Every structure is written in structure tokens, then in C-alpha cells.
UniProtKB/TrEMBL annotation:
Protein name, UniProt field: Sugar kinase
Domain of life: Bacteria
Organism: Methylobrevis albus
Coiled coil (residue ranges): none
Molecular-function GO term, any one: kinase activity
Keyword Acetylation among record annotations: no
PROSITE patterns: PFKB_KINASES_1, PFKB_KINASES_2
Keywords, in A-Z order: Kinase, Transferase
Segments forming domain Carbohydrate kinase PfkB: 8-296
């Protein structure tokens, strides 16, 4: 049961190993192209948990990984200030993601979700919600039918216990695969929803920002739309708020939405109003775009 005044966040999401490829010039199909290639820890849910911990929020992170990586990843999360609740899978490897970063920071992804798609009720016991203020669910946890059913049951238990529920659609590509209308049905009534511009367009069936706010804002307590370099906007309690993004020299937008979301929730738990939460969020999202990689550790040399 949630404790009054609790500040902890439980994150349900994915663990991935990110292989980031940043070509130095145009791709040459069938031949070589010099590139910067880095192997980094990733996964939207894992990134969000890392950023929440960076912002001082007590954070529990729940996911499923390959057995061979379980001990090492658990230790890595603990070192980042996160309380890991990782299940070890004997048959599937930890997920892996190849990211192709274009000039200007836009990305394309090639994803093998591995053990993430085997998350089950056994990985989500009732004590996960003890003392929690917010349950945050990455949309990637809703992609496969098995994890989806388990996570939706946990979301219902959270609402019954008075724990706020936050969702992030996570991927326009996966939204298109699973049907945007279904996602809206699964997540309607969540206290927070954080789509980016492409996800908002799919979910609302419109590229018009005003239509997106009207259509989606009726389904969530607070709707926050991430619009990249154009900043962000929110609709909460019938009031519209806008925050501009600071100008930065972007080299990689990996993790920008995750840092944004974590900064918003951290500011909310700290008592900030919606405009204050938006300002904190756009600042965090912009800063991580200036380095390669999506975790707080990427900023150590920035």
C-alpha cells in the first residue's frame, strides 16, 4: 500500500544494450563508411530509472534480463543509486538495440527485445508498490501480449492503492504495430502521459497540436507532449502550458525523452507546478542531446 507523502517511483520497463552508430558521412550501400560506434547501457525504462535516481528520487526498477547479465546489471543499477528488481531469464538474452544516428541527432532503431518480452506476473509482486508515490510504465512493456497483461494488472493494483500512474508511449513504430486505439484503451485514466510529437500524432490521429491536446488530454490527468527542439506543452486541469527548449548543438537525441520525463516527475514530486515541471524537463532533455549516450553517466565528460 502506498505511504502518504511517499516520494519513491517504481519504473517498469526494458533493459537494452545500445550499439550506437554515428556515421562520419553519407552511408555507402554495399561498401565501407567510417563511423563512431559505441556500446552503451540503454533501454527506455532503464534510462528513465537512471535519470530519476540522478535527480534524487528513490527509484525501483523492474525488468527482465538474460541470466548471464543478471549479476552485473544488478550491480550497475545499484551503483547508479537504483534499487533493481531484475528477473533472470534462462532462455532469452538481454535485449539489444542498434541505433543509427544521422547528422543533427535524429535516430533509427533496430531492436531485438530478448528477455524484455518475457516479463510476467511473477516478476511484479505486490510489494513493488510499498511506499511508492508513482508507478511509471514505459510503453515498451506493453508491446508483447504476456508482459502487457501483467503490467496492466499492476497498473490496476496501483490505482486501487492510491499510487499515481504514469505512462510513456515510447515508440511511434511500435504504437503503429499494436494499434494506437488499443494503447489509449489500455492506459486511459493514467495520471500522466508523455508522448512525443510523432506518438501524439498517431494516438490522436492528427498532426495538429491543438487537436492532439484536445483528443488526448481528455484521457489523462496530465498530458505532456515532448516536441524536441520546439520545446514541450502540457494540458492539466484544463490549463494549457508551454515551455521553449534551449538552443543546443545536438549530436545525439538518445535518452532526451527519458531525461525529460524523469526531470518532470522529479519536479512534480518536489512540489513544482506544471510550468516549473516543464521548465525542468526541457532543460534536462536538451542537455543530454549534447553528448553521445542516453544515461546520466554520458554527461560526466560534458
Amino acid at each position: 500500500m502506498a505511504e502518504p507523502g511517499g516520494r519513491s517511483v517504481v519504473v517498469i520497463g526494458d533493459v537494452m544494450t545500445d550499439v550506437i552508430v554515428r556515421p562520419e558521412g553519407p552511408m555507402r550501400r554495399g561498401s565501407d563508411c567510417r563511423a563512431t560506434i559505441r556500446r552503451l547501457p540503454g533501454g527506455s525504462g532503464a534510462n528513465q530509472a537512471a535519470w530519476l535516481a540522478r535527480f534524487g528520487v528513490p527509484t525501483r526498477f523492474v525488468a527482465r534480463v538474460g541470466r548471464a547479465d543478471h549479476a552485473g546489471l544488478s550491480e550497475d543499477f545499484r551503483a547508479a543509486g537504483i534499487a533493481p528488481r531484475l528477473a533472470a531469464d534462462d532462455g532469452l538474452p538481454t535485449g539489444i538495440l542498434v541505433t543509427l544516428v544521422e547528422p543533427g541527432g535524429e535516430r533509427s532503431f533496430f531492436t531485438d527485445r530478448g528477455a524484455n518480452d518475457a516479463l510476467s506476473d511473477a516478476d511484479l509482486p505486490d510489494d513493488l508498490l510499498d511506499g511508492a508515490a508513482i508507478l511509471h510504465v514505459s510503453g515498451y512493456a506493453l508491446v508483447a501480449p504476456g508482459p502487457r497483461a501483467a503490467v496492466l494488472r499492476l497498473m490496476a493494483r496501483a490505482k486501487a492503492a492510491g499510487v499515481l500512474v504514469s505512462v510513456d508511449p515510447a515508440s511511434a513504430g511500435f504504437l503503429a504495430d499494436i494499434d494506437p486505439a488499443a494503447f489509449l484503451d489500455w492506459t486511459a485514466g493514467a495520471d500522466f502521459c508523455f508522448p512525443n510529437a510523432d506518438e501524439a500524432a498517431l494516438l490522436a490521429g492528427s498532426t495538429d497540436p491543438a487537436t492532439q491536446l484536445e483528443h488526448l488530454g481528455a484521457r489523462y490527468g496530465t498530458l505532456v507532449v515532448k516536441r524536441g527542439a520546439a520545446g514541450a506543452e502540457a494540458l492539466s486541469a484544463g490549463r494549457h502550458h508551454i515551455a521553449a527548449a534551449p538552443a543546443v548543438a545536438a549530436i545525439d537525441s538518445t535518452g532526451a525523452g527519458d531525461a525529460f520525463l524523469a526531470a518532470y516527475l522529479a519536479a512534480h514530486l518536489g512540489g513544482a507546478d506544471v510550468p516549473g515541471c516543464l521548465r525542468a524537463a526541457v532543460a534536462a532533455g536538451a542537455r543530454i542531446c549534447t553528448v553521445l549516450g542516453g544515461r546520466p553517466s554520458a554527461l560526466s565528460g560534458a
